[in-house]
Batch of 2 targets.
Target 1
Amino acid sequence: MKLKAFCVRNYRSVVDSGWCELSPDHITGIIGQNESGKTSLLEALKSFYEGEIDDDILRSDLSLPEVSCSFDIPVDMIRAVLNRKRVPEGLLQAFAREKELVLTRVWNEDKSSQVLAGGKEVEKIYDKLVASHQLKEEKLEARIRKILNETEKIRDQLKKLNQDREKLIRKLDLLITDYSDRKKRWRKRASGAEKEKLGAELEKMKEQIAELEKKADEKAAAAKDVSEKLDVLIPLTEVSVAVYDTRRRVGHAEENREKIFRELIEIQQRMEYAPSEREQRAAQLKLDVTQELYLQANKQVQDRQEEYERKKMIASLVIGGKGMRQAVKETEEWFSEYHRLYSRAELGHELFQLIPSFELFEDFSSLLPNRIDLSEIIKQKSEAEGFKAARNFLIVSGLTPDFFRQANSRILKQKIENLNRETTIDFQDYWRQSLGKKNKIRIHFELEHYDASHPEKVGKPYLEFWIRDDYERLYPKQRSRGVRWFLSFYLELRATAIRQDTGHRVLLIDEPGLSLHARAQEDVLKVFEAVKDRIQIIYTTHSPHLIDINKLYRLLAVQRRDVEDERSETVVFNARSLQEASSDTLSPIYTLMGSRITEQKFIQPKNNIILEDVSSYYYLTTFFQLAGKKQDVFILPSTHVTNVGMLVNLLMGWGMDFIVILDDDEEGNRMYREMKKNLFGNSDEKARRKICKLDSFQSMEDLFSTIDFKKYVLNKREGIPERNSEYIENNGLSKSILAAGFKQRVQEKGVKFTHFDDETRENIGRLLDRINSMLT
Amino acid sequence: MDREDKIRQQDKELTDSIRYAGLIQTAVLPTRDYLTNILPPHFIFFQPKDIVSGDFYWATRLGKKTYVAAADCTGHGVPGAFMSIMGISFLNEIVNQKIPLKTGRILNQLREKVMKALHQKGDSKEPKDGMDIALIMLDPENSLIEFSGAFNALYLIRDDKLQVIRGDRMPIGVNAVEERSFQTHVIQVQEGDCLYIFTDGFPDQFGGPEDKKYKYGPFQKFLLSIHKEDMEQQKWLLINEMLEWKGDNEQIDDILVIGIRIE
């Protein structure tokens, strides 16, 4: 269960670090100048684990931070913890396919946070889960708008039809009344012309009445049709209105929360500037109340959002042709089913318990103190000075709080004395400084009680620490800061190794051994090596002594996008893109290479071999060793083929003899042409005396037969029909990591030259012979 | 159309389709004329069990050197035929690089291509499909041959003695244990030497009075008994021997035997 990579967004100067892959051998160094953002990356990882952030990590644009970590966790372990709820379909398969667990901590405006689970595939599953039961937002919106417009239109139509009908009926009523009057009059008349005239009028009126009745009936029929249409539209309208309504309610709740949040900020600011303690207390009280209100408001937003989602789903179903009752039923079923499934946040919460613990090695808590109150250790007061170091010491000594429960203080003191005789911290294996070499360092501790000089603590027990060597006994703080740091650091690692319950850990160390001598800093690296199987280490440094030149793949380089502007964002380069970092950022590596020149006989007057890059360095040194060929060669790796010319110029300037080995690829050939033109008067013959091209091999890796490449370099079994170098490029692999792995494998497994097949032996033999002939 | 007619119809369609596939497979095998041009006196006894075959032969010339192979893919019939087409294409691709490679390196490259094509990575659950093969390179200029084999062997008959040159005990495809490079055997040859490469179809055929496998011992003896005959005649004698051995039994696998006489 290892941390494989991390990605930090919107955290101080880091806008987006991209995925930063950690070294596969568990020691990762972050290099960069001051203010480049190295520490921010460590703190971001700490925040990821602890969930806490300060105001000062927020960027000025107030974009909220997000930290993602990817872990190498077997899917069986994931399956084992997911037993409280149901797991969405396909999720475990997605984890198995992705072969990693990605967890992302996202923070909210109130600095609360949640951990969401999932890489891209997992995200897709959740998106699909919701999308499959709902119309897309814009589509739903368009449909709702259409329905509401249509309903409005039909209502208007119906209203007009009813009005027209009423008008007709009123007219008809009048006509009928007039008709009855006239009919009475007509009956009273015995006969004559007037009666006839009246009779004719009545007939006409009758026709008019019939016509009006017909019209009224038509209007009624039309109204009925329209009304039926409206009946169909009404449930659709109702659900549409409900969607709008709930959305409005979400908006109101959000406004309310925003208002309370602003109040909260205001109170916090007021608290900072409160002139008196009384006012501060009053502000604190108000702050507590407002915080409570904020939580309520936040809950309201969440509830209303869910209600909005429900209404949207009902609307989607009704619009899709389902009856209202059915839609409500299906929605409720879906939500109840949905609630039975793990949400991404719940999943994140569950899976978080599987990951290794992250701990930042901090000077204040981790350096061994002179004294610490016993109660602070027993009560686990991690904020006490030196708490972690004291706790670590007790673990290393095999003590538990029960040890101090011994009522008889004389017996307790005797026990401590015995223990002090036994406890020798044998860290001189790692500490090559004279103090450690010549003298065994012992840490002594004593149990004392406060006297009257500390009236508030009088009579209370405390532990006192001493660091002894053969000559003197001093308080930790009286020792050099270097010894104190190294000892405390050593205790931390030893304690971790002893604590069986802690499982795997990620230790974050900011500028380890800042106060240590160069040799002691190299000792820190030795300790890292010793513990790397149990503890993954990520450290920041600008010290060349904390970098292993043979393991540059362990480095991440951090710098500002615009190196001249400290306000520009932080960018991170991994081992594969190290050469893109500025020379200032890479200065520890250059310093190291420079410092090694004198120490390791890096360059000599003769037999110098300049190589394109560090990976070629690993291969060639190993080839020489395996083939048992000439050993007095001095191999100088460039950081990239483009820098070969510079090294050649330097050696020529110093009057030193050399040869260059170049790959037979585009860049190698370009460098060959350049050097031939600039240094060898454009003569192939002269250039060939100094430059050895890997003819027909694109790079050192192609010297291996495919079988040997897979076995000794790649450590994998799969069909590779292309060239080895092409395979590396096509699969985005790091050449230096592979080359370092090869060197390590050869050393650890006792690989011999005869173990390679004839193809590899032939190719390497030919290259070494050629180098030898060029050197002599 | 009743049920029986329907089945008959489907059967006919399927057979036609396989027959056509058989034509394609024959088309990718080297032609008789081409083989006559590039090989010294030789015969090829190729008798698929079905219409299409999992066995295949392949030959090509690169400069003055001639490569010839007899291969047996996992399975016979249609699945075997798919593999055989793949094998022929890969072998052509490898020699098309125009670099004269040792036979062992050709097999190494062939294995890489097959493993890549079948996504084989050495996991226990993945399919173990692949092929067995015997590959010879004839170099008449230097009177030598190179031989490499994946399970399959080379028989060399000289002075009435049969010498077995065994191939490596691993297939072209993922192996049970980690893959190793194929060995290249370099053998000086002389005029009259007879070389035989073959698949396991002939020695594995059931038949005879006790209905048993023909086996490798009798196969070697039979070759010794006929090797002085004309190459074409050897082929007919092998066919005859097979027919007599098999009797009424069904042919159990594809059969391929290639014989070459060094001039």
Note: The helical segments of chain B are 3-28, 32-38, 77-95, 103-117, 201-204, 216-226, 231-246.
Target 2
Amino acid sequence: MSDELIAGGADADGTLSRSPRYVFTPPIDIYETEDGLGLMADLPGVTPETLDLEVQDNKLTLYGRVAPYVPAEARLIHREYEIGDYLRSFILSEDVDHDRITARLSDGVLTVELPRSERSKPRKIRIETG
Amino acid sequence: MAVFRWGHSWPEFRDLEREVDRLLQTMNATFQGFRIGRLFPPINVYELDDEYLLTAEVPGVAAEDLELTVADGILTLKGCRENPQNVPEEAYRRRERATGYWERSIDLPERVEDDKLRAVLNNGVLVVHLPKAEAAIPRRVPIAVGNGSSDSGSARRIDVGAEHAPREERDAENGDGPSEAGQPPV
């Protein structure tokens, strides 16, 4: 393996980038819902087109890119935050029904519903009298 | 008065009282002190030729929950981020996102036309356009070049073609000079 490939610094999609891109771990909330679990992540600047949400095996991965919203010629004169991409993965428990996962992105917040699969929902077991 | 509830992974920090940031004027000095705490929302400021851009990351804040006011040269951003689904406290397994009311005030420099501000909220990012006052926009001053060898003496732009002729003249003079000087005395 040649070193140039590594030193060249390629983006996730394989394109070479001149300037380094920041990758952030977005803050999240995870909460229980009636139907399973809910997840919210702050992804300011990410649009539905620039967000990838993927479930593979037991791993849920979110990867959001921020499209530039300031003209390239603008000079930064004060900085409290960096602009970059967001990446975070979660291991889903066996209970989550992968096929029924839904997600929506609004105002820069991603909400993912992770419904419990039917068989892991509490079931009332009828007790028969013997 | 901003009251934040922070999740377990964030250090608890007290209410962000109204802070008046001399943002555009003495920016670096003012903000160094705040770096330790995490301000909400974080703000960047950019400069263009005719305006400043103030950008703020406000994910989860709807336009109707956001208030921008300008008074006496102070821009105030106010907003609130509520838990939209009314999830009860005990339902949270992990909590890293802040909720509550926040407010930040920024001193605008006099060179901003504060009656012409406009703001756009998109995907959780607020962009406030702060047009520079006319006097603050750098104006290109035409520089007149006086050509010393020009007979007219009027200021004019020198282009390559115009420059060529005088140089030939000069070369010709120079060529004459040494030959004259080099002429053996009769």
Note: Residues 58 and 121 of chain A are 19 Å apart (CA to CA).
